[in-house]
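Q: Could you fold this chain for me?
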Amino acid sequence: MLVGGVIVAGGLILWFDPSQQQSGGHSMTPPDTSNIAQGDAIAQVTLPDTLSARAQIGKRAFEAKCAACHGSNAAGQNGVAPPLVHKIYEPAHHGDMAFVSAAKNGVQSHHWNFGNMPPVQGVTDADVKYIASYIRELQRANGIN
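A: Sure. Below is the predicted structure, expressed as C-alpha cells.
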C-alpha cells in the first residue's frame, strides 16, 4: 500500500497522499435519506414553465428508459437510484457525455449507496443527449447551473 509520495516538478516538492483522495474526485456528500421512505422521491423538483423541443424529446425518452429507477422528473427514488436534479450532477462535475457514458457502459457506485448502475439497453447516444437536455433544463429550474 502506498502511504504517500513526493513529486519534484520544476524544483517544487509536492506531497501526494492517496488516502486523502475521495472517490470520484468530488467532495460533495449526498443528503441523508434515512427519513425518506423506500422508493419515495429524494429531491423536490420544481418543473420549468416550458421545455425546449430537445428537452421535450428527452423527457419522453427519460420516461421510457430512466424514470423506472431515477423517478419521475429525475427526483430519484430512495433505495433505488439517485436524483439527477441534484448538485452532484451539475454540468461542471458531470458533463453531458457522462450521461452518455453511464447509459452505454453503466456506472460504478461512487456518490450514492444505491449500488452500481447497469448499462441502459435500447438507448442511443442521440437519445441520451436529448435526455441530458431535459435533465439540464430541470436542473436550471432548480438553481443548478
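A (continued): Residues 37-141 form a domain with the Cytochrome Bc1 Complex; Chain D, domain 2 fold (CATH 1.10.760.10).
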